[in-house]
Amino acid sequence: MNAKSNLLIREGGRVAFFLGAVFLLLFAANLRARIYYHGSNYPFLLWISCYWVLTGVGLLKFRKWAGLLAFLPGVLYVVIVVYGLTKGPSVQTPWIVFAAAAVFNYFLAVTLVAIPANMLRSWQDLRW
């Protein structure tokens, strides 16, 4: 196995664990706000946390299914951006705000797809 791809996959697993912890913390804060202040209910934060922890475990164990799971946020985000582009803006916005948002959306979509694609360059080294 290539040492560089080994490091990239391990770092991806660690980042996935970090994101899992962040979303679990957000879920706990939402639970606290719901109990004390009758705040809104966001149970999907727990599911997102479970997704990132599962992906992190798989990446640290060099599993192919975890590499495929890493693509899921990027694919979903690209679908949302394409749907938004085909529908067009629903309100009149200044062109500079629209351009800045478009650049940010394109950058985020490329990032969410490019990082897992770079990890999957070592697909043959992963196992199911």
Structural features, described:
- With 128 residues, the protein is an all-alpha fold.
- α1 runs antiparallel to α2 (44-60), α2 crosses α3 and α3 (64-87) packs antiparallel against α4 (95-119).
- The chain contains four helices and no strands.
- It starts with a helix and ends in a 9-residue tail after the last helix.
- The protein is flat and about 50 Å long.
- Helices cover 79% and strands 0% of the residues.
Give a short summary of the structure:
The chain is mainly α and 128 residues long. The chain has helices at residues 3-37, 44-60, 64-87, 95-119. It has one domain (3-125).
Descriptive labels:
4 helices; flat; 128 residues; mainly alpha; 0% strand
Total helical elements: 4
Instruction: Report the mean per-residue pLDDT as an integer.
Output: 82
What letter string, H or E per element, gives the SSE order? HHHH
Overall geometric form:
flat
Number of domains: 1
- The unreliable regions are none
**Beta-strand percentage?**
under 5%
Termini separation: 16 Å
Structural class: mainly alpha
Largest sheet: none
Could you state the oligomeric state of the chains shown? single chain
Our Rg estimate from Cα atoms comes to 18 Å
Query: What is the tally of beta strands?
Result: 0
Portion in helices: over 70%
